[in-house]
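User: Can you predict the 3D structure of DpsA protein? Sequence below.
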Amino acid sequence: MAISIGIAKKDREAVAKHLSKLLADTYSLYLKTHSFHWNVTGPQFNSLHLMFETQYNELWLAADEVAERIRTLDVFAPGSYSQFGKLSSIKEESGVPDWKEMVNQLVEGHEIAAATARDTLKAANGAGDDGTADMVTGRLQAHEKTAWMLRSLLR
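Assistant: Sure. Here are the predicted structure tokens for DpsA protein:
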């Protein structure tokens, strides 16, 4: 059955392209946060272990929400590591940095994801896609708030 939600196919595809980048950033940040949750050490262990758990759970749910929005626009969502690696702007961490570097990397990751959300918001607004704009505004706020909270640990 053809989709008829009031947004032209080319506009839906353009917005989905931005959402795919946001999904890749979200998933990459989820993976990094989960790894840091497992591997954090030091005097801040308990508080960071719990904070990272809260954050990776939120990111996991966010990834699902973004992917489902892509599907709502009748576009297939990326779902492989190779696709995410090509789309994401978040650098992979294959080592185990100290807790301060973990926090630094997560601040940077949330700031990158916020910038991606901001670009996606512009695309959604340009296409008249209020549903995506609403969802992405929430993602933008979540990334900005998380970056602030993490950054506060370093001052």
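The CA atoms of residues 73 and 124 lie 11 Å apart. Helices lie at 9-39, 45-72, 81-87, 99-126, 130-152.
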